[in-house]
Amino acid sequence: GQWTPVDPQYYWVFQWDGHNEFWAGRVTNYTATYPGGLTGSIHTDGQMWASTLMQIYEEIGRTATDSNFLEALSMTNGGTNQEDAAQAFIQADIDLFGGANLSVIEFYFTQRGYNITIPLPLPLAPANFNVYSDYTTPTSMQLNWNDPILFNTGDTLQPEQFTIEIERDGAPMVSIPGGSEQFADTGLVDGQEYRYKIFARVNTTGMVSPEV
Question: Is residue 158, in this structure, part of any structural domain at all?
């Protein structure tokens, strides 16, 4: 019973917001870019901002998008423009999520034309993450990965500068020092399915990489 991205209605702000014989209504798949696409009409121009947030929403989910939006709102005032709001949204993600979603946020904001900056370098994501168990180890999982060696700025990331954070079934489980590149999760239930995610966290700034 839900609209999907193939349905035009999926991109309507609200069903009562136009999309009828009186006016076309607003959408969240507006393609104009900032600042060249500004028309001077608040409701028309606001579609750029709304459409960008929905692109981000599709990638990082409702909780992070809504939380960042509300936190960023507290950093704005009557003189704030869309570019200022985008920068506030970035700061909100740093404050609330350690910058975990900044790679996605930066991509869509930049694509829209907002001139934004990421104030702190982010670690790249761990690579080649795999989880293994067989009949010889039915109650444990062996996790292996390659540590990130760079920040997103291209600067070198040393093992002593970060930890690898491991989540199991959506909950934080353990923090592993950089350089380990493996962890054995023991005491599990034979035959039960477990889901793992890992990411890097910089010790001094708290900035985090994308999850894998």
Answer: yes
Q: What is the mean pLDDT of each run of 10 residues along the chain (212 residues)?
A: 87 80 88 97 96 96 97 96 98 92 93 93 95 94 98 94 97 97 96 96 90 92
3-class secondary-structure state, position 44: helix
CB 201 within 8 A of CB 158: no
* 182-to-65, 166, 176 alpha-carbon distances in Å: 32, 11, 9
Residue 211 domain flag: no
| pTM metric for this prediction | 0.70
Pairing of strands 162-168, 141-146: unpaired
Structure tokens at 69: 């939006």
Q: How many CB atoms lie within 10 A of CB 207?
A: 23
CB 131 within 8 A of CB 151: no
- Please report the DSSP string for 161-203 in residue order: GEEEEEEETTEEEEEEETT--EEEE-SPPTT----EEEEEEET
d(CA 23, CA 164): 52
Q: Are 30 and 108 in a shared domain? A: yes
3-state class (DSSP) for residue 3: coil
